[in-house]
Design a protein that fits this description.
The protein is an all-alpha fold. It has a domain at about 35-70. Helix content is about 45%, strand content about 0%. The chain contains two helices and no strands. The protein has helices at about 35-50, 50-70. α1 (about 35-50) packs antiparallel against α2. The longest helix has 18 residues, at about 50-70. The protein is elongated and about 55 Å long.
Length: about 70
Amino acid sequence: MESEERTSDPQTPTTVGTCLSEPPFEPSPKSGCSDCLSLSVARENARSTGDYSAVSDGNVRMRKHQAEVHTS
């Protein structure tokens, strides 16, 4: 039985490096706003079940809500 030598394919691109950055801050609910509170509770429920995609979605919804409702 002959052994087979494996070599890397010169046509295959290689990744030089990956840069990671800090994730953006999580927005906090504004005091007295029931919509902010609801979005925050939904985000925490998602986090408690390990659904980090939904946590991210909740952050996006909270930022959008705050930009539309709470900006001067």
